[in-house]
Amino acid sequence: MERPAFDAIIVGAGFAGLYMLHRLRRMGFRALVLEAGSGVGGTWYWNRYPGARCDIESMQYSYQFDEALQQEWDWTERYAAQPEILRYAEHVAERFDLKRDIRFDARVTSAVFDEAAAEWIVTTEAGDPLRAGFVIMATGCISTANTPAFPSGDNFAGVRYHTGRWPHEKVSFKDKRVGVIGTGSSAVQAIPLIAEEADHLTVFQRTANYSVPAHNGPLDPEVQRRIKADYPALRQRASKTRACIDLVFGTKKALEVSAEERQREYEARWAMGGFGFTGAFADIPLDLEANRTVQDFIRGKIREIVHDPEIAQRLSPTNTFGCKRLCVDTNYFATYNRPNVTLVDVSATPIEALTSSGVKVGGRDYALDALVFATGFDAMTGTLNRIDIRGRDGAKLKDKWEDGPRTYLGLGMAGFPNLFTVTGPGSPSVLTNMLPTIEQHVEWIADCLAHLRSNGFRTIEAAREAEDAWVDHTAEVAGTTLRVTCNSWYLGSNIAGKPRVFMPYVGGFPAYVQKCQEVVAKGYDGFRLS
Question: Given this model, what pLDDT does residue 84 score?
Fold first, then answer.
């Protein structure tokens, strides 16, 4: 049979798509990337809001597949800001000459499996169908912005923005009355900077979030030199942790040490900054009483920082620590001490409407010139569900996932041969440092395609029984933790009508990698090759 135009089509030119292209091209595969945006970078191409930066330290949020790349790139801050991360992505694309195999402004609308030819037909908004033996969805976990429907939502006469689809040109809030809806990760980063510039900022908060200080600053050249001198050691340490981050994870239990020792540990972690809090004690993610000790500590810090006791109370989370994504901030809570910042609680009294002049809550109209939606994403499944993906017998992926995503290892789905997802639902993904997680998936997929080629196989498909077993295992492991105890985007709770299923794999990176290796060692156990 005539070969298709491409061995593989990769959807998305973020960090997953770039490395997937590089890896396949190096192996002699004819690969093409289709990217909806006008440049590389994925989430760092779209999220340009004030204060946007990574919450993983920059020396770890980077590729490790090429030692020369690790050595030549110098990061300027402990936590890199969006412009620097985007420059890094562009540097990678240029360094490995990737752009010649990327089509920009090419949003994929459908991907249909042709069973007779064992090929995928991929169509973009331009309407040109492309054929490939394999399709690899590198579409990201948080790439489809969510804007909830508000009554009279089209009435607002001012300027509106979404943090996940920020303009490329500079936005000025000088002398403006600005409203921010949402207090998740992007809002926590944007609010302090918007408050410094705006005439007045009104924050509409539905759910208070836990946030810890980043203690960001210029990256000490000596620290960078020391890490680069033995980068493999850092990467190896990180790979042994559940989140694939080189952090010190405590082995003691919070309930088995004295109150004084707990306090010392929490103070040390607060002073260190960043995600270190998640590993303070081994029983925090598993035992509610242990979890309450860290809840109380952070609420105490909020009361110390925020001058007005009533505002401090409203900013204090009441849910389980860790069931939502922990925020990492710079001066977030202190921002509410500013005279030009107002906090409006919309949990008990929801937003009634967007009026022509602002936002109406509890019968009061808050006058605004600009409105920022920091309302997050339709995470994990949103982007894939917006593409018309059809597998065997024309079955739609969206229908298959009607009651929640079903995958085998977050890599493949029964009924959808030769279709892979990078960091798909059912993999550790958003519970880890995404860069090494991406690399592990890309390398697994690349090795799989090499195996198929060398052994004369044309198709690979997850077996339904293996998929069912993995879905059950993922749910079972999640149920042993406290992560399922509150509404979060991990569960799809932020999207109206979305099924409540804990989507990422909570069993940790090392256990997941071991499972992937066992699958390969047993001849791709759980997959059907033909």
Answer: 98
**How many angstroms separate the CA atoms of 61 and 41, rounded?**
13
pLDDT at position 153 is: 80
Amino acid in the structure at residue 341: V
Task: For residue 149, tell me if it sits in a domain.
Answer: no
Contact 211, 327 (CB under 8 A): yes
Q: Do 197 and 248 share a structural domain?
A: yes
Cβ(395)–Cβ(409) below 8 Å: no
Same domain, 368 and 384: no
Q: What is the mean pLDDT of each run of 10 residues along the chain (530 residues)?
A: 83 98 98 98 97 97 98 98 98 98 98 97 92 98 93 90 96 98 97 98 97 97 97 97 94 97 97 92 96 98 98 97 96 98 96 95 96 97 97 98 98 98 98 98 98 97 98 97 94 94 97 98 98
What token pair was written down for 160?
A: 């509106």
β-partners of residue 351 are 361
Q: Return phi, psi of residue 19, to 5°.
A: -70, -35
Do 163 and 285 sit in the same domain of this protein? yes
Q: Give me the residues paired with residue 102 across strands.
A: 33
- Residue 43 phi, psi dihedral angles, 5° rounding: -60, -30
Residue 238 to residue 258: CA distance in whole angstroms: 29
Distance CA 447, CA 277 (A): 36
Q: Which residues, 6 or more positions from 55, have their beta carbon under 8 angstroms from its beta carbon? A: 79, 185, 214, 274, 275, 327, 328
